[in-house]
Design brief:
6 helices, 77% helix, disordered N terminus, elongated
């Protein structure tokens, strides 16, 4: 159980720092820059929603909600990732695919809770959540260039 809490805490930190906003002044008198920034709005909005859903998945209190709470948080991340993928098109395909793979591993681990020892099932979920965090962080690093 401690492993899951540690992994959940780590993923929350990774997700929040990876998708944080910059305090840098983004105003510009250059119309090209303004137009380019405005066209990135859907990607940046989807990134923010994805960040929030990954953070919720990493919330240590989620574990106390049991399997159904984890599945619900998982579904929210999957929906947010689909929305992000649609907004970004193929721009971040490699990172999106890596995150989808990590989510598939998490879904498998959650599905196995109750098959055997509870400890090993929860440990597998903790490891999978940590992997989701690593993949989300890699995606956030790439998106940070577009959505500072």
């Amino acid at each position: 159980m401690k492993l899951i809490a540690i992994a959940a805490g780590a993923i929350a930190v990774v997700a929040l720092t990876g998708c944080g906003s910059s305090s840098k002044d983004s105003s510009s008198s250059n119309p090209t820059t303004t137009t380019a920034a405005a066209s990135k709005g859907p990607v940046c909005d989807a990134r923010s929603n994805l960040s929030a859903s990954v953070s919720a998945l990493a919330d240590p209190s989620l574990i106390t909600g049991g399997k159904s709470a984890i599945e619900s948080a998982f579904d929210d991340v999957k929906t947010s990732l689909d929305d992000f993928s649609e907004a970004a098109k193929d721009t971040y395909k490699t990172e999106v695919d890596d995150l989808k793979s990590s989510l598939d591993d998490l879904q498998t681990a959650v599905g196995k809770i109750g098959d055997g020892g509870l400890g090993s099932g929860l440990e597998a979920v903790g490891t999978a959540i940590s992997d989701v965090g690593t993949s989300a962080s890699a995606l956030a690093d790439k998106v940070k260039e577009e959505c500072p």
